[in-house]
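fold-stage: in
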Amino acid sequence: MELDHQYNIFFVLFALVWWIVSGFSNFVVRIDSFLPIDKRFSNLINVFMMHALILASCIVIFNLEELSRLLLLYTYLSTALLIGFSRLILFQVNRYFTNSDMAHTRYVIVGTGPAAASLHQTLSNNDEIGTKFMGFFDDEADMSNPYSSQLQGGLDDLKDYCLQHSIDEIYYTKPLTDSAQINELTEFANDNFIYLRLVPDFSAMVKKDVNVYFYHNIPMLSVRNEPLELASNRVVKRIFDVVFSLSVILLIFPILFPIIALLIKLESKGPIFFKQLRPGKKNRLFVCYKFRTMRVNNNTELQATKNDPRITRFGAIMRKTSLDELPQFFNVLLGDMSVVGPRPNLVSQLDQYSKVISKYKTRHFVTPGITGYAQVSGFRGETKEVHLMEKRVEYDVMYMAKWSLMMDMKIIFLTVWNMIKGEKNAY
């Protein structure tokens, strides 16, 4: 009877954890093709790994160790098969309705310039059920344009075409300088229950991707796409940091600390903890905590090198397995660090590299982390040459642009995996 109760708890937890994880990852339920098939498959694998990690923690917390391991395997296999089968069916239904005359949303694009081409490519890759592209309209179309075969006429032909073919949406991609034309189209669209979408082309002003957001009703552009600019994302990341760091401090730290402290003391004289000022968010200095891995010396601003004589034997093991970073979870609780983010470099490195690497200071827009995208991508350890630091910075900036909670989960998983197998560049 007790085992039946455990199974009931297990299935409730399985469903609840899946609901939470998939809620953070809308690509689990999306069937559009904004993402390529390999990326969607990779994301789905990440969700399963995150689900398994959280569920394993729940099994330990709720003392469900008597559950059959075979049951766990069958449950995950059946879930994967059901998701795969349902997505296949939905994809086929999606494609059928998209390519058929039953499409309930028909749209045209005004203009054939770069903005029109980008919009067409994006919307064409979005297999949203019931949408169908009906053609371009432009008075100044270049017939050498690859989309010229899909040109339905000029602006004078647009209104009649929309009425004859029951167009639902008009995307206007021409410069927003012709207010009379825009007002005329707006009035026509309102009178005939057609949605008019304005898609401004900023390519002449901004030569890179921009992030558009609204402050009340005022549109604003940011030349750097950074999800953590949004307060809601920062709150989610901070809640995760506090929960995760508290879990480590309460469950793992009390077990490992006495062993590590004893081994540090037995091998060399000095404090257990090593404290050092590091530049954090917006270059604000904070005290970074680590387990001491070196003999006490006066060269703490000198980066560790291979076979560094300052490093103790046990210190080398801690560096290889990243155990020396364990006290930094207290930095996370204090708000000076995050679990995942650009690694905080030495103050001397800040002075050195900010002068020769253009985006070096950009990485300090966000809170530094215990682990980071650069570290799990193979860029960890000594940086003898500038190009090695440039690669770290490149991955740090990439992390800032692509941040998501699932990305943090993936980096944590890869960090744990690297700890188990050992890092060849960690010394």
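fold-stage: in (second)
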Amino acid sequence: MGIRATNRAALAFACAVALLVLGSRHVFWGDYFVEAWPAYFGLRTDGVDTFLRLVPAYSGFVTLIGAPTTFLHLGLDWTFRLNAIPGLVALAGLGVALHVRERTHALLALVLTAGSPVAYLALDAGHPEDLLAAAAAVAGVLAAVRQKATLSAALLTVAVLAKQTAVLALLPAALALPKPKLRVLVAPVAAALLIYGGVQLLRPGGTSNLAAQVGAHAGSFFHPWQVWWPFGVPSDPVWEAAGHGATTSPAWLVPIPHPLILALALPLSLLWWWRAGKQRPREDALALFALLALERCMLDPWNLGYYHLPLVLALVAWETEKRRPPVIALATTGAIWLTFRTLELRTGMAPMLMYLAWTLPLGGMLVRQLFANGAHARRLVPAFA
């Protein structure tokens, strides 16, 4: 027997509150203090020009959600907590929206969404925008799986405006529908061009920093949990002294990873759509998004633990739509915590090998699920209405 909707909502709320409390204990030491907070403080003290000059790359979230909260004059910690609430609500809503019949499966699914340890990593790192982007992106694909195109387009628009990496959810959502709906693609892209482009045009310097604004370059941060690690070069002593590590990205690699991540999303998505045929299980679009999210992490030289939040949420949604307990999502969450928290290392080959030890099998499982069999060997499993 499952859990009543009211009880699921109460549990999701409790998980979200716990995440908020635990994830906002060290705001001063996170990226929020050095990335978003200067723009908010500048807006409050010096006006819009200073805000636009200091706004970080995820300017959609900072402009639409973060900026209005600064006028409440609540200080660093409480401004951060207010910024985290939309993402926490989205996580809780996603957890409640999952269809799980068994009580233990429902509890596990709620903990892995509304109370996700990977979401805690995002908050602890100072990135509340990642919660909203990941939850809305997975919810958008899930809505498409359930043939709700307009809701999917709205959720994906929120996701892309929260963070640009959510664009990886657009093709899985569009291809999950009986006929790909342009609104699922057009609405998020148009909104992103309007908001991100508008901020870029208005900020001092205009379009000169457009590549950095849209995240086209990987930058110099170079962490061992990615496939490019063996190509790293010694970093500048000043860079190392600032705590960024003794290894950095070679110059030739800097412009490659992010365009490559986007470029691979198109053939992978179209291959699934063609290979599975008209009788494809719609819920496998969530597995496709999980694969694209995993690809993003493995190919990003700046990879960190909380980058995997879309992956974990997509796995939870996929497994529950398949009427399975979310054990793959649970194992992935454990592997992420072990890799990035318990045994975190940033030198040598061991961190990369430990990371690849679970990401490669996970990627292989997803590839096999999506591409190993054609439509003639597969049975359409209708999603929940």
